[in-house]
Amino acid sequence: MTEKTSPPLYRRIADDLAEAIRGGAYGGGRGLPSESELSRAYGVSRGTVRQAFAQLRASGVVSSRQGARRQAQGEQRLQSMSELLSFSQWARSIGEVPGSREITAATTGSTAVVAAALDLAEGSQVLHVVRVRLLSGSPAMLEDTYYPERLAPLILSADLARDSLTERLERQGVHLEEAEHHIRAVPATPCVAELLDVAEGAPLLRTTRRTTEPNGRVVEFSVDHYRGDAVAFVVRNSAASTTTARVTAPGAG
Amino acid sequence: MTEKTSPPLYRRIADDLAEAIRGGAYGGGRGLPSESELSRAYGVSRGTVRQAFAQLRASGVVSSRQGARRQAQGEQRLQSMSELLSFSQWARSIGEVPGSREITAATTGSTAVVAAALDLAEGSQVLHVVRVRLLSGSPAMLEDTYYPERLAPLILSADLARDSLTERLERQGVHLEEAEHHIRAVPATPCVAELLDVAEGAPLLRTTRRTTEPNGRVVEFSVDHYRGDAVAFVVRNSAASTTTARVTAPGAG
DNA sequence: AAGTGGTCTAGACCACTAC
DNA sequence: TAGTGGTCTAGACCACTTG
Q: Which nucleotides of strand D lie under 7 Å from a protein CB?
């Protein structure tokens, strides 16, 4: 009985516009409908239309200048937060087939670093999952993820080679509210090098990721190593918005 | 005669709140002033106060839940876009002394890649500036920046070892509206290794950056190499906002 | 000059939280 | 139950762009 309260009007309008823009309408610098046109069309006040546009502007979908009609901001795939979190969703969105080879999935005592990241006492039991993530069959990333023990049953009952854990968690009512990623460059250690099929010492993008629920509880802490020749991150920012995305490295050697 | 139009009311309110939060008021989960309190205090309508809060929420400074007072979102230094763009501003914000060693500053013909990034015809003249950027005296980044020729007089009249070009451009009326950063890991080439004082093949964070004015004209295209052991990037995202920052690498080896 | 987005007001009702 | 934020309306004036 999860009562769905109907979404607000401005949301509906924003979604309609976003979909039309994705579909290629408003392409060639022609300008979007004006606020007055939309408020007539939807039978709402101008304030509601402005609220819809505020949301689109914050996510980088449209730009605006006083006096002129709003413009659709082309190209940039509106990567949602879930797309940045889920390897599977991301892979599918760029037309690759996601896959993974499970290396480990076991409960262990936590080290100081892991315990701190998960807000637990050092030595607490945590679930440690190690997977090599594949893009259409070739290794792209080594994922080292730690979950608090309470999530262990949920995770271990999944098919780690095939399922998207992120999607599974969402379906089970674990909502991912906020994530923090730290991105740096490190050399491949022998062990990582072998798993990713690169030379020892080869440059890797190492990201650590900490994801929390709306109430602040930590859902996962993950240390990921991307092949430096396979993946890059894109940050796009303006006064109005900042967006981030993961992309396959262009001109990869 | 640059007439300063006074900023809107909601901006003033948002700035006041942001500064109070930075200063540590509203620290211990006590909740911010309510909308009605603020509208009384400033003598404005509730809509104006909400506009101020919308801005703070979009930049990740406050969170809100229906029914409860808004909360300040601790710690995260509100890095503005300019702080991500300007090495000097960033260095000062983390308490380091910015510096640079100029390597090259000359006009040259553009390669295909540079010309494409600057929206010019291949072979057009561009200004090429190469600098080693220092954090309190030690090399942290090699910066390879290309400017369209029209900006050459402005750039060349600066003291490249000391001035912040970003700040100089802003003062001269060149407003930086949008930037796109691509971040990946690459091995140090012999030449770069020597300039950054690292071993050949050492992992570096390479970012390419393309910055545009409000009218879409490209201001700069830059290829930067950060020492992998010195610098990291942080991306923090939630449903409400995404922010990015550059940080010095923790536990650097 | 007409149209557009930016700012602001003064109300209203609702869903939710805190006590 | 009182207070809070979320949604929405119907107006107003202004700054700016476009013809």
A: 3-12, 15-18
